From TrEMBL:
Location (main, coarse): nucleus
Key words, A-Z: Acetylation, Coiled coil, Isopeptide bond, Nucleus, Phosphoprotein, Ribonucleoprotein, Ribosomal protein, Ubl conjugation
Designated name of the protein: Ribosomal L1 domain-containing protein 1
Family of the protein in this entry: Belongs to the universal ribosomal protein uL1 family. Highly divergent.
General function of this protein: Regulates cellular senescence through inhibition of PTEN translation. Acts as a pro-apoptotic regulator in response to DNA damage.
InterPro entries: eL8/uL1-like (IPR050257), Ribosomal_uL1-like (IPR023674), Ribosomal_uL1/biogenesis (IPR028364), Ribosomal_uL1_3-a/b-sand (IPR016095)
UniProt GO cellular component terms: nucleolus; ribosome
Amino acid sequence: MELNEAQVNKATSALLKYFESTKKNDLLADDSPVWLVLSTKILPDNSRVKPIKIPLKYPIFDENSEVCLITKDPQSEYKEMLKELGITRINKVIGVTKLKKKYKPYEAKRQLCSSYDIFLADDRIIPIVPKLIGKTFYEKKKQPVPIKMKKGVLLKEITNALNSTYFFVNNGGCSSIKVGLTSQTPEQIAENIMYSINYIVDKVPGKWKNIQRLSIKTNKSVALPIYSSLPDEAKKIEFEPIKNETEQDEQDEQ
C-alpha cells in the first residue's frame, strides 16, 4: 500500500495557502507545525513511555530551536561533557534532583514545557520521567526523547534526535505526528510525509490494514484527508477551501 504522492502534494499546497491567508489577518500569528493525523481501526493495547523515532528528509528542528536536556545527577558532569565535546545545540541542562525540586509546581512545569521546542533525556531515567514532568508535556506532545549519554556516541545521538520526528503511541485510536513546519515549502512537507510514512505505518499493529485514515493539519486548521481505507470515500475527497475551527463549528450547528 502506498500514498498517492500527487494527492499529498495537493493537500500540503492547500494547507499552506490557507495558513498564509489566515496569517495576513493575524500579524502576530506564529509559524505552526504541520501534523500528520493517523486514525486506526483497532485501538492499541497500551501506550508507550518512549516515543518512536521517525526519520525526516527535511528536519523540523534547526539551529534556532530551543533544546533542553534532562540528565542524571550531577547535572554539572553532563554540562562539562557537552562543553568538552563542543556540543552547542543544547540550550539547557536539568538534572533529576533539580527537576523534582524547582519544577514541582504545575505552573513551573507549564513554563518549562513552553520554553523549549524539544526535550531530550538520558535513556536511563526515562522510566521515572513521566511523573516528574506532568501531563502538560503529554498534551503538548513534548515528552522527552531518550538518548544514550555515553561520550563516544553523544554527538551522534543528539544529531539524530534533532533530525527526526516522533510517534507518540497513546491508548486512543488517533495519533498526531509532526511532519513539517509552515515555514517549509509544500514540496518539502510532502517529501517528509512520503519519506516517513512507511516507517510510521510499520510501527502500527496490523500496518496498512489497520490504517483507517491519514490527514494533515496545522494547529488551527481542520484536517485535510490524504488517505482513506475506503476506496469509495477516497474518491470523494476534494481539496476545497479549508475552514478554520470557528467556521466549522458554526457550520455544524446549522
